[in-house]
Amino acid sequence: MITHADHLPAAALSASADSSTHSGVSWAAIFAGAAGAAALSMILVVLGFGLGLSAVSPWENKGMSATGIGVSTILWLAFTQIVASGLGGYLAGRLRVKWASMHGDEVYFRDTAHGFLAWAVATLVTAMLILGSVSSVVGGTVQAGAGVASGAVSAVGGAAGASASNSDADPFGYFVDTLFRDNRPVAVSDDAAHGVVTRIFARTVANGGQLAAEDRSYLAQMVSQRTSLTQAQAEQRVDQVYGQARQSVEDAKLAAQNAADTAKKVAAATALWTFVSLLCGAFFASFAATFGGRRRDAVTWHERDRHLATPTASVR
Length: 316
What we know:
Elements: H1 10-21, H2 27-55, H3 66-95, H4 104-154, H5 160-169, H6 173-179, H7 190-206, H8 213-226, H9 231-297, H10 303-309
Helix pairs in contact: 2-3, 2-4, 3-4, 3-9, 4-9, 5-7, 8-9
């Protein structure tokens, strides 16, 4: 019985047998390309950090702006991925084993796969370093924003700063002060008076921000005892100072919300552009591998080779 294989030429049978017994993946070339890509990526990342630090200034309105730093970081990350992945893919394609008597489409696919695998290995190697650095930057931004917002809220007007600590340490302080209130001009120390005012302000802000009439009258009495103001003038001062303290609390809350929103936007933009950069790296690694493979398979004829390959003419 004659099979289809009997009609194939010897070279095709040899190539078919070779392809069926040997793997189409040249791991040595892949790891070589991945090593080159990872090393170049680290060099470019370190260079980018150096350039970024040289562009930052601790002085206000000096150096590059935050927007400029963000844009330059994204561009440098994309440039690093393209150059490093392109080098790794080219090395993987150029150093792989030559596939003789193989169809051009199959060679193209294998070269593309080699470039992609080299990029994948290099990405896994550098993930802990590059993505870890990005996560540290984003996490530091979030913590800094939260810290600034927390500090702003806790330091508002001198009154909000003691509100949380006083409420936690002595939740009944306001009611104890109310128990010993006296309409007579009793002299108390400044520290005691400041503590009473702080507790009244803290409780009022926590309960909605509307100063009760009895608290307002009592605060005006304390102010009048220590100043030359009348009761009416003292009440006006109480309203003015409390309004400033309440506005400071609102400003601190707004600053906290803006800081959290900015941190969220920075984290989202960093993740999205990192994703785009990695896709660019995968594409250029695969493309460079096909170019390196074609260079690997190309045959360059020199003059000496042509002379040796040309048969000598017979002399008649």
